[in-house]
């Protein structure tokens, strides 16, 4: 499973929560790392602007892509949508399962997945 999204969306936090069963504090992912020890292998790709083009190197043979959005970040909604559309149009991902996770739903100003997709 390839975990992608903009920086600070919560990709690493979600991955470690799945692995450890608890929320842990993480630092920004610089490039990409492989996490195993789950029932699947997960690649967490950093979401900073300069790193995003590198995520294409992980598309080949990806079974599933989990696109994670910070649902409280209205200012970067257009960037998140643009990156999601780029992933959806990649030939290497045409047979992959796509999942969208609108993270940080516990925050009072969080948009729902439906609101995100309407934008």
How is the secondary structure organized here?
Blueprint: E1 2-4, H1 11-20, E2 32-35, E3 42-45, E4 64-70, H2 77-88, E5 97-103, H3 113-118
Key terms:
single chain; 119 residues; alpha/beta; Rossmann fold; five-stranded mixed sheet; 24% helix; 21% strand; globular
Task: Describe the structure in your own words.
This protein has 119 residues and is an alpha/beta fold. The protein has helices at 11-20, 77-88, 113-118, and strands at residues 2-4, 32-35, 42-45, 64-70, 97-103. It has a single domain (2-118), classed as P-loop containing nucleotide triphosphate hydrolases (Rossmann fold, 3-Layer(aba) Sandwich), CATH 3.40.50.300. It has three helices and five strands.
CATH superfamily assignment?
A: P-loop containing nucleotide triphosphate hydrolases
Q: Roughly what fraction of the amino acids lie in strands?
A: 15-25%
Tell me the strand order in the biggest sheet: 2-3-1-4-5
| Terminal CA distance | 26 Å
Low-confidence stretches: none
Number of domains: 1
Largest sheet: 5 strands, mixed
List SSEs in N-to-C order: EHEEEHEH
What's the CATH architecture name?
A: 3-Layer(aba) Sandwich
* Helicity range: 10-25%
Protein name: ADP-ribosylation factor
Pfam family, one: Arf
GO biological process, one term: vesicle-mediated transport
Binding site for GTP: 5-12, 47, 103-106
């Amino acid at each position: 499973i390839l975990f992608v999204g903009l920086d600070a969306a919560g990709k690493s936090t979600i991955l470690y929560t799945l692995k450890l069963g608890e929320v842990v504090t993480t630092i920004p992912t610089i490039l990409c790392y492989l996490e195993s020890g789950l029932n699947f292998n997960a690649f967490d790709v950093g979401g900073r602007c300069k790193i995003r083009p590198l995520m294409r190197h992980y598309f080949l043979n990806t079974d599933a892509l989990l696109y994670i959005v910070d649902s409280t970040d209205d200012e970067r909604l257009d960037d998140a949508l643009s990156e999601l559309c780029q992933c959806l149009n990649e030939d290497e991902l045409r047979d992959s399962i796509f999942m969208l996770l609108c993270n940080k739903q516990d925050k009072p100003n969080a948009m729902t997945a439906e609101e995100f997709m309407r934008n």
